[in-house]
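Methods — Computational structure assignment.
A single polypeptide chain was analysed. Its primary sequence is given first, followed by the predicted tertiary structure written as structure tokens.
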Amino acid sequence: MQEHTNENMEANYRKFIQRIVDTERVWGLTHDDTWATSSSAEFEDAEVILFWSDAAGAEACAEDDWKEYKSESISLVEFLENWCVGMYGDQLLLGPDWDASLIGREMEPLVVALDVVQELKHKNKTLEFTQYDSQDEFEEQVIEALEGEDE
């Protein structure tokens, strides 16, 4: 059995963020409008929706219960506005770039969204949001929501 250290999982997560910012695409596994999810290993009664930074990563997990599933991509803006924000509202977790053994980090979707925005800034990239006036407004609202959790 492969050992999954926190450092490996952190490095894998960083690669996920960098890749989706570079390609402005995020991948999932879908079948009949259903996206691949897994039960959380960390939290009882929590669901994790899985996303990958490329089609190959998603397709590597399309077996067993997901053998009917196909890889599908969405834009980075849709991922941020609809998925991360919606998953936060639904109290779902996000699984970035899980491996074929279905092992990976379980993240708060707004933390992932904020990491994406930070990487966009680092690379001097700006996305055209449809539900927010600007990338800065999206970032401000994500930060406010995360700070609200701490109170």
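Note: The chain has a mean pLDDT of 93.
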